[in-house]
From TrEMBL:
Residues 43-124 form the Rhodanese domain. It comes from Paenibacillus mangrovi. The keyword Transmembrane helix applies. SMART domains: RHOD (SM00450). This is Rhodanese-like domain-containing protein. One of its GO terms (molecular function) is thiosulfate-cyanide sulfurtransferase activity.
Length: 128
């Protein structure tokens, strides 16, 4: 085997590993589609709805009742979220909110809900 073959094998393994990390299930993360996400929020007595998109994205339209904690600031702002609240996260497509959920779960939050497909899949009301 020459060095370029080894390089491509290592590159392919790295890509597969990254894809697995992006799409693998996360323990404690509840992935919900639009209707289920909305129903679970309505049933929750102590909910915290968080939009993890950047400020300019949030200002362009968000789910009513959401607070904006951008993923870029999330690690330093987890103290703003109570572990007693039912946490509901969303972003544009569901990927950034999944990353935010991982941060919360590592910090001892028992369960976190993520809107699959993000606000792009949301059919409910929006604040503009």
């Amino acid at each position: 085997m020459n060095s370029s073959t080894i390089f491509y094998i290592v590159l392919a393994l790295f890509v597969v590993w990254m894809l697995y990390r992006m799409f693998a299930p996360v323990k404690g993360l509840v992935q919900l589609r639009d209707e289920s996400f909305r129903q679970k929020m309505e049933q929750s007595k102590h909910k915290r709805l968080i939009d993890v998109r950047e400020v300019h994205e949030f200002k362009s339209g968000h789910i009513p009742g959401a607070v904006n904690i951008p993923l870029s600031q999330f690690g330093s702002r987890t103290s703003e979220i109570s572990k007693d609240d039912d946490v509901f996260l969303y972003c544009q497509s569901g990927m950034r909110s999944k990353q935010a959920a991982k941060i919360l779960l590592k910090n001892g939050f028992p369960e976190v809900n993520n809107l699959m497909g993000g606000i792009s899949s949301w059919t409910g009301k929006r604040v503009r």
